[in-house]
Specification:
Number of helices: 15
CATH architecture of the largest domain: Alpha-Beta Barrel
Strand content: 5-15%
Helix content: 25-40%
Number of domains: 2
CATH class of the largest domain: Alpha Beta
Number of strands: 13
Largest sheet: 7 strands, parallel
Shape: globular
Structural class: alpha/beta
Strand order of the largest sheet: 1-6-7-10-11-12-13
Mean pLDDT: 93
Distance between the termini: 14 Å
Low-confidence stretches: 52-57
Length: 379
């Protein structure tokens, strides 16, 4: 798929997504745990590079630049952060989304915990709670956008040489993610059956709100892609059935995807950890172009997905984070399996989640070097 001239980052991204020749495949990664950063700093990585350059392209790892437009799709005003109880071992607190957590204090680094919190209470239990919560989601607010973005950022966006993304990482939240955030996984699982009217109202509101917040930016510039964050699956399958997805989410996801594509967004990508494969046909029917991160431990194999869904489904991710801790030989073997996909196009390999602290700096540097060789076609 090689071309005879050097391309810029945006040209590479679009050509890969369109199965056209490129000089190299884009080199992206999502990020690392805070505990991983601490380990790498102890192993010799410059702290300034790691903490300042990750989202700007992380030059020390030879990543390609992307630009994420910092649109705020969250609550405004949010809940007040409040510590409700604190001991030597744990604390109970209400976060900015109104969720009450019980969290172990041991192992916390820069606010990131090594253990999952226990969730004690959520802001929505019925339709009256939801209608009260909606007051915190006013779309038409200047504070949702960067100050003076039209004067400062817009000229650069229109003349860009790199991909432009609507929303920062995990900001453009989808239907399952928001509903789970409002109700909790267990309560939501019952609500599809016990409170269908509430769920229909929620799904309609999520689409309406996301559309209205996006309109001012899309009125001024085109966008290379939007990542809709869902995280609606576990290791063995999704947290809701295809039938429930079609009944409650599908009409509004289709409406949202149509809006994006009719207003200058080139590609719509869905982010879901776990195994979401049985929902892929529905996502594609909605107009979704790609999925990320294809979590390998959950059985999401990019080679098999390409065989199953063909070129209509582009693939992001697919590099098993577990392999990175196993050493150079394992990394080489794993990456070599992806050569046919790289050559075919429509595939951008990244680690299938944040890089965990069992991965040494030496192993990650080796992975990035060998992956870069692969992306240049010289593996």
């Amino acid at each position: 798929m090689s071309v005879g001239k050097e391309m810029n980052g945006r040209e590479r991204f679009i050509n890969v997504m369109e199965y056209k020749p490129v000089d190299k495949v884009p080199n992206y990664e999502a990020g690392v745990w805070e505990q991983t950063k601490e380990r790498w700093i102890q192993e010799g990585l410059n702290e300034f590079d790691l903490h300042w350059n990750w989202w700007a392209g992380e030059e020390c790892f030879e990543m390609d630049a992307r630009e994420f437009i910092p649109v705020n799709y969250g609550m405004k005003p949010h809940f007040e952060y409040e510590i409700l109880e604190k001991t030597e071992r744990y604390e109970i607190y209400r976060d900015y989304n109104g969720i009450v957590h019980k969290a172990l204090l041991e192992g916390t680094v820069r606010g990131m915990r090594t253990s999952m919190d226990q969730y004690l209470e959520f802001p929505v239990s019925d339709v009256s709670d939801f209608r009260e919560l909606k007051k915190r989601y006013v779309a038409n607010l200047h504070s949702r956008y960067p100050a003076q973005w039209k004067e400062i950022m817009l000229p650069r966006w229109k003349d860009r040489k790199h991909p432009l993304i609507l929303g920062e990482n995990c900001s453009t939240l989808g239907f399952y993610w928001r509903a789970r955030e409002w109700m909790g996984t267990e309560n939501l699982s019952y609500a599809w059956y016990d409170q269908p009217d509430l769920m229909h109202e929620m799904m309609e509101f999520i689409a309406d709100f996301t559309i209205e917040v996006s309109k001012p930016v899309l009125k001024e510039t085109d966008i290379d892609y939007v990542m809709i964050n869902e995280d609606m699956s576990m290791k063995t399958g999704p947290l809701l059935s295809p039938a429930l997805y079609r009944k409650f989410i599908f009409p509004h996801m289709k409406r949202l995807t149509d809006f994006f594509k009719n207003n200058g967004v080139r590609y719509v990508i869905v982010d879901s950890d776990g195994n979401c494969e049985v929902l892929i046909p529905l996502l594609m029917e909605c107009g979704v172009d790609a999925i990320w991160p294809m979590e390998r431990v959950a059985g999401m194999d990019p080679v098999k997905l390409r065989e199953e869904y063909g070129k209509e489904l582009r693939l992001f991710g697919g590099v098993d984070k577990m392999v990175l801790a196993q050493g150079k030989e394992a990394i080489d073997k794993h990456l070599s399996e992806m050569v046919p996909l790289i050559e075919e196009g429509g595939f951008i390999p990244t680690v299938d989640h944040l890089v965990s602290p069992d991965v040494s700096l030496e192993n990650f540097r080796y992975y990035m070097k060998r992956k870069n060789d692969l992306l240049w076609g010289r593996f």
